[in-house]
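Exercise 7. Predict the joint structure of the components listed below.
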Amino acid sequence: MEYIAGVDIGGTKIAATLFRPDGELLAKVVFPTRVERGPEAALAEIRTRLEELRRGRPAERLLGIGISCGGPLDSRTGLILSPPNLPGWASVPVTRFLSEAFRVPARLENDANAGALAEFRFGAGRASAASGRPVRNLVFMTMGTGIGAGLILDGRLYRGATGLAGEIGHTKIIPGGPECGCGGRGCLEALAAGPAIARRARERRKEFPASRIWTLAGGRPEAVTAAEVFAAAAAGDRLGRLVVEETAYYLGLGLANLVNLLNPEVIVLGTIATRYGDFFLEPVRRVVAAEAWPDPVAAVRITGSPLGDLTGDYAALAVFLDQSPGA
Ligand SMILES: [Zn+2]
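Solution:
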């Protein structure tokens, strides 16, 4: 029997998995990244954890390793290039290290592209195939500290000229709007990513001194994150609802542009959108329907991820299985 190893590297935790090539999950272990210990120690632990997982399958063959990590990174050279959530991880040769350690091919892809490949092969792309024609055009959006997208166009991962395609987080929504981490203003990320959601709630603190958001954050407004805003909104809090509705509006504008530009069949929204489902997706769908052309709107399904908490794991597996040029 054959299997594939997956490694999903995040800022707080790393997941190592073993899968059958058809997507059956065989084993999984999660451990803290502990960024401060540096990349060498983290890579050594990834190696040890994978060796431990493999011990249960002595007679089986490891085909290769897929790695998913937040960008920036270079999928051709297999280098992680100082992602914001992994400070100090500059030019980390993760594919060379794992490939030499296990004597198998290893492939690296950023989490947005990897998530798109996973949804295409194992998630929302497959769910649609069951109901009719196979999906050929799918967009996966990561929504956390930043906003990014992975694009599957005509059945293949689209990387663009220099591997930077899909940066929807830095498309402009409000000219001259709030400052963005990229140095620009009014980007989608500066309006609808986690820190922007928290900031917009804090800006209205005087107007809504009794909001549940402050209680959920332990009375410390500086500790508010998007999670408290969404939790308060789901419980009927006025400020929470206001901020979530605004977020849906900004995100809907970004998606309307995307829908008119690419005419995808499926848009999968990760993290918060997956967690809160239609509570957040419905207002987003309404904005897209109002702002994009009717024909591409009728053709697109906007959904949370059916892979849920396993998206990152399937992302790593799909990176290894993908045969798109440039990998
Ligand atoms: Zn930006």
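Discussion. The first strand starts at residue 2 and ends at 9.
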